[in-house]
Known about the structure:
Layout: H1 2-29, H2 33-45, H3 47-57, H4 64-85, H5 99-112, E1 116-125, H6 128-140, E2 145-150, H7 159-171, E3 175-181, H8 186-189, H9 193-200, E4 203-207, E5 223-224, E6 228-231, E7 235-239, E8 258-259, E9 262-266, H10 270-285, H11 289-296, E10 307-314, H12 322-333, E11 337-341, E12 345-346, H13 349-360, E13 364-370, H14 376-383, H15 386-392, E14 395-399, E15 403-404, E16 407-411, E17 415-419, E18 423-424, H16 425-430, E19 431-439, H17 441-456, E20 458-460, H18 463-467, H19 471-481
Parallel strand pairs: 2-3, 3-4, 5-19, 8-15, 11-13, 12-18, 13-14
Antiparallel strand pairs: 1-9, 1-10, 2-6, 6-7, 7-9, 10-19, 11-16, 14-20, 16-17, 17-19
Helix pairs in contact: 1-2, 2-3, 4-10, 5-12, 6-7, 7-9, 12-13, 14-19
Amino acid sequence: xxxLNYSVALGTLVHMLLLTTVxxxxxxxxxxxxxxxxxxxxxxxxxxxxxxxxxxIGERRIGARxxxxxxxxxxxxxxxxxxxxxxxxxxxxWSRHPSFAAGLNRLxxxxxxxxxxxxxDIRLHSDTETVLQAIARxxxxxxxxxxxTFYIWNQGGCADDVLEALIRAAIRGVSCRxxxxxxxxxxxxxxxxxxxxxxAGVQVKAAxxxxxxxxxxGRTDLRLHRKIVVVDDSIAWTGSMNLVDPRLFxxxxxxxxxxxAMVRLRGPTVAPLGAMALGDWMLETGTPLDELARDAGLxxxxxMGTADIQVVPSGPGExxxxxxxMLLALINAAEEELVLTTPYLVPDESVIWALRGAAGRGVxxxxxxPERVDSLPTRHASRSYFGDLLNAGVVIxxxxxxxxxxxxxxxxxxxxxxxxxxxxxxxxxxxxxxxxFVYDPAFANELRTLQESYMVDSxxxxxxxxxxxxxxxxxxxxxxxxxxxxx
Length: 487
């Protein structure tokens, strides 16, 4: 009996120590009040399991070594950006842009260290086969370095044209690096193509490896979601498309082909995109950024177009809530029209409030999302937001010709946001992303035309019909909404 009492007393003491320690940690992290109360409630009712769950997913832990490398990366980028790569190009004539543009630029520069760079050539491409073939041609023209960062690489089709171009480039002495997400590209990493690349001299690396032991160092669900190709110091590609041929990718998922868009860039904007991609390589390998930049041939680039573009990186440890702040500022700046496309709509509540507020001001808002997505929980969670938006006057269109994967926003046909970021909390808080804020009416109108083509292949949700959904359907939607931070 005494032994039992001792065990109970010891268990109670450990319980109280866990509650106190983790409770103090939750409070000192200062999450939203509702989030903090939810975590405190969980660790009270499930003291041991709750603590484990909190340590796994309750914080954006990145590990001491990665945090140290990110600090070194940001310091180096600040020095190179201010002194060599893009200082002169940051002198933009804001009188030629909407009145809110200069403020948005100042916000991005302050919270993300990313000033707008003038004089870029930007070309929009929406045909996947054409994009993959064009990337292969650009790599065939490389003289110094090719740096590629992708979330997913999938073997087959026109994606193999890019692989063969990389092999040819490496054989002729071009420095080639391929960084892919360890989880997103896991099937490809286990195949034969990475070995072929390495045999030819291409450096291939998996970013953010996953595993049980790594959970004790940092969160293992942080993902590298960027899509960047940089060739020498002259050409960059970015957008929503992974290195896949949609005719062969996830054809068993029942969502049709993935529909994407990419941009090909020349001019000063190539430098920060290249620095971002090389920075990701530095974080995984520890190789100094200056050494990587010299090897890849990344240099200052003269203006060669009319578009002023702000490159905004985001991710845990890099820019805090910078991207969310810029997204909210962009939505709040709209005066006449706001058109958004996203494959996954599981946003922060502040985004929903901003959209409702814009609609209330009389802004014509159209939100285009795919009718079907490759995740049942995400599909239900997304639907839970439709009612609030429809009631506010937002027009929601469901794209029916495949999984619309393009991430884009056009404001008043004058300013555009384009890149890798979904309107979900995972993209805004857990993924490493890259986003372009493009201050150029010509590009904004071109992207708006592409969005219009998506609308043609979409069906509009009838608000009255939506309110008559079954109670069961509404319950499942709202239940999966509770998992929004993890989706």
